[in-house]
Recover the amino acids of this structure.
DNA sequence: CGCCATAGGGTATACGTATACGCATAATAT
DNA sequence: ATATTATGCGTATACGTATACCCTATGGCG
C-alpha cells in the first residue's frame, strides 16, 4: 500500500517505463488499433501496477468530450422543498446504472430552472448532454427548450412523446395506459368516471392519459362527461382539493382515474372523509405505482411504468443524439396493476 | 439569439474585447483583488454579453480543483436492483441543494463497490471529495475505507458517529432516537419490547438504536430480553422473516421496535397474518419516516431524521475536510412521529 | 528629490492528454 | 527489383485556464 512517491503517475511515467512515447500510451489505453497487441498489453500491465488513471480533466479538455451526462430535475417551486417526486427518484437508479454501463458519469442537479442552467452545463463543458426530468408547468419551459435547440445542446426529455415536439422526448405510452385504466373501470361496471389531473397543454402527459380514458369509454359505448374532470398537479394536497371540488360539484360518479398516485392518495382521503366507501361507492386508479400505493387502504390500483426501461432508453437516446445517430425507440409500454381499490 | 459565430468564446476573446490580457480576465472573474474595480466590471459585462463561461475542464486541469463532489451509494447487492432505499433518496435533495449553494457540482453513482471505485473518483480528478451513503454490511467496507484514508482521499460517511471511527462520519443521534422510541413504548404500557434489526458490528447504526431502546427500558425499570431481538437488514422481506421468526419463537411480546420502516412494514404484514391486532396486541415503531409510513394500516409511528440538515452537514463537513478546516458538528437530532401503530 | 512600497496588470508557462502528421520498416503488388 | 500500401510509432502541438514572476507607474516618505 502507498508504495508510490505520492505523486500521481501521468502518461509520461507510463511511457518512460514502457519505453515508448506518451502518445502511444494514450493510444494503447483507449484502444486505438494502430498500436501492436504486445505493446498495448505491456502498457496496460504497467498502468495497472502504478494505479494509473487517465486524468479526466486533461482528457476532456483535449478531446472536447466529457463522457458525462447531466440530469436536471425541474419542478414547480415547491413549498416543501425537500420533497421530490418519488416517481422520478425511482428512475434515478436505472439512469445511473445505464450511465455506468456505458462508461459515463452522471452529474445531477435539482436547481430551479434559473436563467442560465443550460449554459452552466453545456457551454462550460461539464457534460456532453442533458437529461431533463420533471412534471410542472410545461408551457413555462418551452421557450427555454427552444433556446436549447438553438444552441445545439444535446438533450432528452421525459414526457409526452409526439413527433412535432421540441427536442427529443422519451416517455410511456400514456394514451395506451389511460385506455387500460378506462377499460378496467368499465369492466368492473363503472360508467361515471371522473378524471383528476390537468387536461390542458400545460401537462401533455396528463392530457394523454385523459384522452386514453375517453377513448376506452367511448369504445365501450359510454360518453365521458367533461363535468367530471378536475385539474390537479401531482401532489396529495392538490388531489385532495380536486376530489373535494368533485364531491361538492354534485355530479354523481362511481370511479376516479387520478393522473398520479399522489393525486389518488389525496383524493382517497377526501372521498373517505366524505363517507364514500372505496371501492364499493367509488373505484379509484392512480398512476406511477409509487411504494406508498401498496400501503394505502384499500391498496391502490395503478399503472406501473417501466422505470428500468425508461432510464435505459433515456440514456440510449441521449447518447445516440450526441453521436448524431438516429434514435430508434422512444415509447415504453405501461402496465395496469390491479389492487383492492378497483376490486369488484 | 444565436448571435455568436457559434464558436464558444474563450477568455482570450473576452480579453481582446476588454483590451486586457487573458490572465487579467481570469483574475477578474475569480475575484482576485489585484484587478481594479473598473476593469473587473468591464470584463464582467463583456463576459455576460458573450455568454462566456469558464471552461470547467481547463480550469480544473490547471488549478487541480474540480469543484465537484462525488456521491457514492453502496448497498448489498440487491435482488431487486432497481430498488433504492427511499431513505437515502430523500437525502439527495438536500445534498444537491447544498452543493449548488456552495457552487459545487455533484457526481452520482450507484455502482457496486468494485475494487477501484475510490481510484475512479479521486485519482482521475473527477471530484475533490466523496460522500458515502449506505446501509449494508459495514465490516465489508472497512478495509476499503482504511485504504481511502491511506490514499489521502477526502470523504465523509453517513452512519454511526463515534470518535474512533475511520474517516469522518456524520449521522443522526441513533442512541437518543432509540431512547425516545423506547420511552414512548414504555409510556403506552409496553414491557415486552422486541427489536428487529442487526445488533452487531455489522450495522453500528442499528446497534445504536438497540442500545438506546435498552437504555430507555432500563431507565423505566424494565430489563430487555435478548430473546426478543432478531437480526434483519433494511427490507420488507427481511422484516417479514424476522417477525415470523419472532412469532414462532414463542416468546410473548407486546411491542416491536423495527430498525427501519421497511423492516416495520414487512413485520406488520407478518404480525397481521398471524392474527395479531395492531396496536392493541402489538405496538410497533419504525425508523426513517418514509412516505409509505403514513399510508400503512395502522399508520406507522416512526422516527424522523433531519434529512435537510443531514445533506447540509455532510456537504459542510466534506468541504471543511477538503480545505483542512476543523469540522464542527456531526450529530443530528431525530424526532419521534406518533401515529396509530402505538396509539393507546 | 531620490527611495521604496504598492497597485495593476503583462509575459511566460504548466496542467495532462489526444490528435494531425511524418517517417521508418515490413508486407504486398507489379 | 521497384513502386505501393499498411503497420506501428515518434514529433510537435493544441485544448483553455491559472499562477509564478516580472515590470511599470504612481504616491508616500524622509
Amino acid at each position: 500500500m502507498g508504495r508510490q512517491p505520492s505523486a500521481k503517475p501521468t502518461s509520461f511515467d507510463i511511457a518512460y517505463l514502457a519505453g515508448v512515447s506518451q502518445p502511444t500510451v494514450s493510444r494503447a489505453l483507449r484502444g486505438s488499433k494502430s498500436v501492436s497487441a504486445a505493446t498495448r498489453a505491456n502498457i496496460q500491465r504497467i498502468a495497472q501496477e502504478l494505479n494509473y488513471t487517465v486524468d479526466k480533466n486533461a482528457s476532456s479538455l483535449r478531446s472536447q468530450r466529457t463522457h458525462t451526462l447531466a440530469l436536471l430535475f425541474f419542478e414547480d417551486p415547491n413549498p416543501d422543498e425537500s420533497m421530490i417526486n418519488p416517481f422520478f427518484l425511482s428512475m434515478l437508479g436505472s439512469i445511473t446504472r445505464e450511465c455506468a454501463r456505458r462508461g459515463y458519469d452522471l452529474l445531477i442537479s435539482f436547481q430551479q430552472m434559473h436563467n442560465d442552467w443550460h449554459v452552466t452545463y453545456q457551454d462550460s463543458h461539464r457534460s456532453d448532454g442533458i437529461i431533463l426530468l420533471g412534471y410542472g408547468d410545461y408551457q413555462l419551459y418551452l421557450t427555454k427548450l427552444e433556446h436549447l435547440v438553438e444552441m445545439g445542446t444535446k438533450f432528452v426529455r421525459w414526457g409526452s412523446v409526439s413527433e412535432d415536439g421540441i427536442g427529443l422526448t422519451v416517455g410511456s405510452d400514456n394514451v395506451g395506459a389511460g385506455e387500460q385504466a378506462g377499460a378496467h373501470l368499465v369492466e368492473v361496471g363503472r360508467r361515471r368516471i371522473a378524471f383528476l389531473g390537468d387536461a390542458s397543454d400545460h401537462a401533455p402527459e396528463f392530457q394523454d392519459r385523459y384522452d386514453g380514458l375517453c377513448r376506452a369509454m367511448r369504445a365501450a359505448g359510454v360518453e365521458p362527461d367533461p363535468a367530471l374532470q378536475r385539474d390537479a398537479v401531482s401532489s396529495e394536497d392538490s388531489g385532495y382539493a380536486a376530489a373535494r371540488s368533485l364531491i361538492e360539484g354534485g355530479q354523481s360518479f362511481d370511479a376516479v382515474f387520478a393522473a398520479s398516485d399522489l393525486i389518488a392518495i389525496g383524493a382517497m382521503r377526501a372521498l373517505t372523509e366524505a363517507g364514500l366507501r372505496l371501492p364499493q361507492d367509488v373505484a379509484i386508479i392512480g398512476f406511477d405505482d409509487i411504494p406508498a400505493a401498496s400501503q394505502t387502504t384499500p391498496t391502490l390500483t395503478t399503472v406501473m411504468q417501466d422505470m428500468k426501461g425508461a432510464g435505459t432508453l433515456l440514456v440510449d437516446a441521449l447518447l445516440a443524439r450526441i453521436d448524431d445517430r438516429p434514435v430508434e425507440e422512444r415509447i415504453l409500454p405501461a402496465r395496469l396493476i390491479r389492487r383492492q381499490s378497483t376490486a369488484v
Observations:
- The first strand of chain B starts at residue 68 and ends at 73.
- Residues 1-5 of chain B have pLDDT under 50 and may be disordered.
